[in-house]
Predict the 3D structure of the following.
Amino acid sequence: MTCGSYALRPLAIAKRYTHYRKMNIRPLQLHELERLSEINRTERIRVGYRQEGEKLIRMDVNWDAPNWFPEGEEHSIPSLLRSLGDLADEAPDTVFLGAFEAGGLIGIAAWRPRLTDTMSQLAFLHVDCHHRRKGVASALCNEIDRRAIEDGLPEMYVSATESESAVGFYRSRGFRPTATPHPGLLAIEPMDIHMIRRM
């Protein structure tokens, strides 16, 4: 089964969506990251953005994001696991969170507590396409926010996919495009939308 596109809703409407009653958010061990294959990333994207400093340029696009490939160097489960493993090696305090419903993994996030001395990073966020717009991403981000506030970190960074759904979600949570992106992250993802949020 595949997933189609969905329209961006204003935050006031999105707030009507509640978390799954039986959804469980918990930390993931490194060996559990292999369960990423349970998440279907499929998405039809018809609106995208290009960043120019703090300005976002809206574009009509025809992008299709297929599900993870079983092998290969890009958008595959092996390449993704290598990237997340590299993140864990570079920042051993990285927290991986999973959202579970009826025993299945429906969402995953990675939070790097120390991108800089004053800034953490939401390094990874994916929700299964059949469970989007139902509060799963918000539940994962709320747990990350709680940890960031407890650690006293005043800012959070995200390098977002340039789709309307991703950019709209992060902006609804207070992230704003930055004119001074992190050099290392910009080099890795030059087409992403680089944003910062004051906590």
Remarks:
- The first strand starts at residue 24 and ends at 27.
- Residues 136-150 form the longest helix (15 residues).
- The domain at 11-198 is CATH 3.40.630.30 (Aminopeptidase).
- The CA atoms of residues 1 and 104 lie 16 Å apart.
